[in-house]
Design goal:
It is a single chain. By secondary structure, the protein is an alpha/beta fold. The protein has 3 domains: 12-80, Winged helix-like DNA-binding domain superfamily/Winged helix DNA-binding domain (Arc Repressor Mutant, subunit A), CATH 1.10.10.10; 84-160, ATPase, nucleotide binding domain (Nucleotidyltransferase, domain 5, 2-Layer Sandwich); 165-316, 2-Layer Sandwich (Nucleotidyltransferase, domain 5), CATH 3.30.420. The protein has 12 helices and 13 strands. Strands 6-5-4-7-8 form a 5-stranded mixed β-sheet, with helices on both faces. Helix 1 (12-29) packs across helix 3 (45-57), helix 2 (34-41) crosses helix 3 and helix 5 (162-174) packs across helix 11. The longest helix has 22 residues, at 252-273. The radius of gyration is 23 Å and the shape is globular. Bound molecules: zinc ion. Zinc ion binds at residues 207, 216, 218, 220, 223, 225.
Length: 358
């Protein structure tokens, strides 16, 4: 079901649909009583009662016990029936891909990874039908990919970059992360920053000049991408996989020397963009603690003293990041309709002074 701004908000069925979405997105944050929903959403108790009753009948929400209260009758707590729906996330790399299915809270229920061959398209279909068990409704999918392969799916789909998906997973786990710089460090380097609650891609970052020479795919010389991308490090080390690169002591020198151009680029970016701190995601994220400490020392030494608060963090979602983040984006787009709600909130805030007569 697609919402757009051509709709007439004065029509009662549209207003009810919006209120349903508001209740769902409030319950996404955690359990809540009807009285509390009415207070938080500024919707009268009768309407909240009707909306919730309908959604309980539709099995979208469930009663999950009583709230703890010092006074009055404790209200029944409601929560999302996370098993009532599913979204898929598809993570596409150059050589492998994975398909994951998640519940309405974005928890990954199953996932499978396969090598990408000629039967890529039909392999995806097979995995999806194998994972589409039970009677849960499938709301849609998100494809996390940096390639532009056409993928046909029998339900609504959004596409995001892997860097974006990984950053979304960190934000969901760790909170707001305003002004954080996310370094998606895998075969290539891709960077995003979160400003005013929005993720902004920074396509120029991998091509910051970070060392004297070294030819880059962009045609430039000395780019960070040429010096420190996962592909470049693997090649320099002569390692056959990230697993061995990041776990064997023999590669420590190669890793350390890749930290110097990275530190140079990070310190530039942190200052230019007023980034608060840095999170490293992607295949390089499992680097040993000693390498993080080394990178931190280098970055701190390049930053002015007033920016000594900048910390380089390891990804919290780890290798689940891209599929977790993609699942959340699919839920945002096709179940919770977060973009529509935030646009409405902006409109409501704009019109609030007029309503109160100021
Ligand atoms: Zn370049």
């Amino acid at each position: 079901m697609a919402y757009h701004f051509g709709m007439d908000f004065s029509r009662p069925d549209n207003a009810r649909r919006i209120n349903r979405l508001k209740v769902l997105s409030e319950l996404r944050k955690g359990t809540c009583s009807k009285a509390e929903l009415s207070r938080r959403l500024d919707i009268n108790k009768v309407s909240i009662g009707e909306i919730c009753q309908k959604m309980i009948e539709e099995k979208l929400i469930v009663e999950t016990g009583r709230e703890q209260t010092m006074q009055g009758r404790p209200g029944t707590l409601l929560s999302i029936n996370s098993r009532a729906g599913r979204v898929f996330s598809i993570e596409e790399g150059r050589a492998v891909f994975s398909v994951a299915v998640s519940d309405l809270q974005g928890r990954i229920l199953r996932y499978e990874r396969l090598p990408k061959g000629d039967s890529f398209q039909s392999d995806i279909q097979k995995l999806i039908s194998r994972m589409s068990t039970g009677d849960a409704v499938i709301y849609g999918a998100a494809i996390a990919s940096d390639l532009d392969t056409e993928i046909d799916l029998p339900f609504p789909v959004i596409r995001i970059t892997r860097a974006e998906a990984e950053a979304e997973a960190e934000i969901a786990r760790l909170g707001d992360l305003e002004s954080f710089l996310f370094i998606s460090w895998s075969d290539s380097i891709a960077v995003t920053i979160r400003k005013n609650g929005t993720l902004i891609p920074l396509p120029e970052f991998p091509h910051i000049r970070a060392q004297k020479d070294g030819d880059c795919i962009c045609g430039g010389k000395g780019c960070l991408e040429a010096a420190a991308s996962g592909r470049a490090i693997l090649r320099k080390a002569g390692a056959d996989s990230y697993r061995s690169l990041l776990s064997k002591a023999e590669y420590i020198d190669t890793l350390q020397s890749a930290m110097r151009p990275m530190a140079a680029a990070l310190s530039e970016a942190v200052q230019a963009l007023s980034a608060s701190s840095v999170i490293i995601t992607g295949r390089m994220a499992p680097m040993p603690d000693s390498i993080y400490a080394y990178l931190q020392t280098l970055v701190s030494s390049l930053l002015p003293p007033r920016r000594s608060d900048v910390v380089i963090y390891r990804s919290s979602a780890g290798e689940n990041g891209a599929r977790e983040g993609a699942a959340l984006k699919a839920l945002d787009a096709f179940f919770y309709h977060t973009e529509l709600l935030s646009k409405l909130r902006a409109i409501e805030n704009l019109s609030a002074p007029f309503q109160s007569g100021i």
